[in-house]
Amino acid sequence: MGSSTEETGLARLAATVERLRAELDEARRAADDRALVELAKGILVERLRCAPAQAAAQLATLAARTGRSLTELAADVVNRTTPDPVTTPTADAEAGGGAAGVRLRTAESAALGAADVQAAAHAVLETALLPIGATAVAVWVAGPDTSLTLAGHAGFGAEEAGLWRQVPPGLITPATSTLLQRRTLWHDRPGPPSIGRHQLTGGRVTALARVAGRVLGVLEVCWPEDHPQPTPRLEHQIEALADLCALTLNAPGPPGHADAALAELAHLADSLPDPAFVLVPHLDPQGDVADFRIHHANGPAAVRAGRLLLEAYPFAAGELLARVEHVHATGEPFHAADMSFTATSASGVSITRHGGSVLLVRRDLDDQARLLEHAQRLGRIGGFEENALTGEITWNAQMFSLYGLPPDARPVPLERLRDHVHRDDEVAVGLFLRAVLHHRRPAATAFRLERPDGVARHLRVVAEPAFGPDGRLTAVRGAYQDVSPQHWTEVALAVTRDRLARTERQSAARNRLALQLQHAIMPPSHGRMDSFGLRIAVRYRPAQKEDLVGGDWYDAVVLPSGCVLLSVGDVAGHGVEAATGMVVLRNALRGLATTGGGPAQLLGWLNLVARHLADRMTATAICGVYDPATRVLRWARAGHLPPILLRRARGTELPMVKGPLLGAFADAVYEEGRLQLEADDTLLLYTDGLIERRDHNLRHAQDRLLAVASRTATTLDHRLDDLLTHCNSDTDDDTCLIGVHVR
């Protein structure tokens, strides 16, 4: 009895709370409606020059005659007399009925009257979004680095909001996608991760929150099921609500704050030695940025304040104006060393946003270019640029001197740098080229240049990719410096340090021993064999870190029968054990192959070696025997990735044959495949260090490798070098690669 009474009391209390909440919501809506009506009355007082009571009577009379509610009529009066960002979407909405226009005007009143962004988010959801089926909304503040901060939300619990308080740069969410693409996006479910995704699994829409062309954040609207069918009218409404939220994010400071900020920025411009301009956005009647007005120019600029940027500098109408608009919208600073500023000169520019204004600093290049030329000559520095669109290569005079080439010689492409370096430095140069040409990020390395005159110089090269406004690679720029004197100084210092540091940790000694063992068997340099109608080239790239030394191996040897043995393998694990295991299996396979056994039989024997004679190690391997007389390749695999056949500019993987890991089972059985090779065929055998990635599955990596391998290459050596440069791996593991070309 007592339990039933308590349940009844709790139910009544819950009903009372719900009733009070509904009454509070109704009171808020009524207050918003009254605010809209009062705004319309004020417009009538000003336009008709009548008393407030007469304006109220006029509104009531018009509502009675048209059969519309007082709130709808008030929204119509405001829309027709007040050109602002809400006018266009409300006018479009009213073409199909006045409800949407009333919702937007009511939402505007509620948002502008809200105490903070959180209250504005609740107001927008309740007045404008609940009627169209949305159940939650989030207002994000955008940082210059595309990070996001949750400024307001409605429809989500406090715990969920706390989890999404900060979104770091680089995490792709619906809001960051809109921020990067700078347009309204509709997201179908399930979509990328975002706030409340496990609760609201429906569709979403994200729109930029802008004030005078400046992007302040993103509005994200959520539905419990699929979002409504996107229409221009609905998209206008969402964008208008986003701009309303932006007004709350752009709350004005104290009186005179904006003027004081502009004065402080003008004072900063006056202190700069280069020409500098303080720019403020110039808006068109629709509220969009049409140009920028020069609020202030320092002494060297010699441009009258008050003029539009395009009036003073017509040649800024292209990329320069676009850069200024982007910095003003996103807050991302921009710097360029060479940009057209006038019809006759190019200048370096620096553009930064300060509040609602932009500071543009230009630096003329004439005198600086002359000084830079002297500095490059004295510092033995050569500069270059490679146009990624046309293939044109530009060298300055110092570059030809560094390479020991005459001034009329053809510049050496960056991608062919390996052909001019010492073989011991090919690994370092390959990693440098991979970073610049494949990953497209700045990189630097040091190497020994072998010049045509026989002189070897120690050089340091640094390069960085350049991108156009659309994000495409346009050029690679960089510089070489002759650091031979510094190198010998560093050698002398290294010798001194070696004498002072004779004690090393045991683990470091073991890793160094393993690396030396690997290099003794497979040095990280070119290997090549031309016989029996085959051209065979091999590459071995050791791990970048000594503690990742592994057990990868390759082999290509002519057997007593006249056939050619081709093999690659990978012993599980790292360190001395893996390296010694690699030596055991590689040498055992060589010895077993002299018996004349087929690939499947050889792997069966090698499995017994791995299981019983090599301390129960496990490994993967590919074993192939090629008969030059018939051009038939017999091959088998032990848990290894299949070889790739390149035939008539098309790359395919060989059909998978069955075969378990070496050392996994005592009674392992291996299948054997046969492949009839043709003239001009190329066969690639490799270990998984070439393609392994932490962020993709193996199938994705194999598809990427097929695409890279199918590219046109002038020689087999260049094909293998390109594979090492552009392969998609990121695990720093060892890599073995064999290329077999049938002539």
Summarize the model shown.
Helix content is 39%, strand content 25%.
Q: Gap between N and C termini, in Å?
A: 97 Å
CATH class of the domain at 523-742: Alpha Beta
Radius of gyration: 36 Å
The CATH level-2 architecture of the domain at 523-742 is identified as 4-Layer Sandwich
Helix content: 25-40%
How many individual β-strands?
Answer: 27
**Global structural class:** alpha+beta
Query: How many helices in DSSP terms?
Result: 21
Choose one word for the global shape.
extended
The main pleated sheet reads as: 6 strands, antiparallel
Residue stretches low in confidence (pLDDT < 50, at least 5 long) are 84-98, 523-527
- The overall average pLDDT, rounded, is 80
The fraction of residues in strands falls at 25-35%
- Strands of the largest sheet, in order across it? 3-2-1-6-5-4
Domain ANTAR: 17-78
Pfam families: ANTAR, PAS_3, SpoIIE
Domain PAC: 443-495
Protein name: SpoIIE family protein phosphatase
